[in-house]
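Practice problem 4.
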């Protein structure tokens, strides 16, 4: 085996500051950013996914952002293959690939690969979809919780796409996703230096709540209305993204603005907790405490240069 591609990665929970650190590292290390965010893949979902601004996107090249319309089929496996191709292309041009994001499954798929095997079936998928339509996504989640509690606790109970995929794998292979991950090839695909950003919970909660209020102030309701007008209501419900479902309930008159904001904040806090649960399991991560370090980007840049003698 030849030398593995060298990659820098910056991960962590929502609102912790990954984008700013990633862009600074890319500017100083001649890098390009690969997004590891499962929702930033979709066009039109900008405010609610906290995509980098137009100015930030112009500062350094970004990849795997705005490549799909809501509703288009995608998976962690497809993401991993596309991401690997992007990484090799970046390296071929003499630049540094920098993975930045908080989607643990997508990050793991790109860095470590996913388990192999025949684990897809249109028939099984249609059967599970019919079951969800009949009994609801919550019943499907409760079923997954009994089958694979470890994985179920890492995802939202409203995430129909991931719940369906986990049930599909189990029905076809007889193994849970957690078991399949544990049995996958341990041979890495990339030589990755990974940094995780974290901060004291009260401070993170404050940043999350400020972000939610900023999303509403900068046009999230209008963005959701545009997506609904474009016919993406069912697509948004199938890929539950914090902010979008709450705004849909607000637009439909099911909840008022106060409850919409509160639900967004609560769900964002829960999501951040799931993200940390996922990343804490990865012993390769070098953690940076954002509330204790004055310049997290400098820590990342210095460590990369030290390791690679730049």
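Answer key:
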């Amino acid at each position: 085996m030849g030398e593995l591609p060298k990659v820098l990665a910056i991960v962590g929970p929502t609102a912790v500051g990954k984008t700013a650190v990633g862009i600074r590292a890319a500017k100083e290390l001649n890098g390009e950013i690969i997004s590891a965010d499962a929702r930033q893949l979709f066009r039109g979902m900008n405010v609610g996914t906290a995509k980098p601004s137009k100015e930030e996107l112009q500062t350094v090249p970004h990849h795997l952002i705005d490549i799909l319309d809501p509703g288009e089929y995608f998976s962690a496996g497809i993401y991993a293959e596309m991401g690997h191709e992007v990484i090799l292309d970046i390296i071929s041009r003499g630049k540094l690939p920098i993975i930045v994001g908080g989607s643990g499954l997508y990050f793991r798929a790109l860095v470590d690969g996913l388990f192999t095997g025949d684990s897809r079936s249109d028939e099984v998928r249609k059967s599970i979809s019919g079951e969800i339509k009949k009994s609801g996504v919550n019943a499907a989640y409760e079923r997954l919780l009994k089958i694979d509690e470890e994985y179920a606790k890492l995802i939202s109970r409203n995430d129909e796409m991931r719940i369906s995929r986990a049930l599909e794998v189990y029905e076809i292979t007889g193994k849970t996703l957690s078991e399949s991950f544990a049995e996958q090839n341990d041979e890495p695909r990339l030589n990755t230096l990974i940094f995780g950003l974290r901060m004291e919970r009260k401070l993170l909660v404050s940043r999350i709540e400020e972000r939610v209020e900023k999303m509403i102030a900068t046009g999230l309701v209008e963005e959701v209305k545009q997506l609904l007008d474009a016919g993406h209501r069912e697509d948004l419900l199938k890929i539950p993204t914090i902010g979008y479902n709450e705004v849909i309930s607000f637009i439909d008159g099911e909840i008022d603005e106060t409850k919409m904001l509160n639900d967004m904040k609560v769900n964002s806090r829960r999501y951040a907790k799931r993200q940390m649960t996922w990343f804490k399991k990865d012993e390769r991560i070098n953690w940076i405490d954002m509330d204790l370090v004055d310049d997290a980007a400098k820590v990342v840049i210095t460590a990369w240069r030290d390791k690679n003698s730049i």
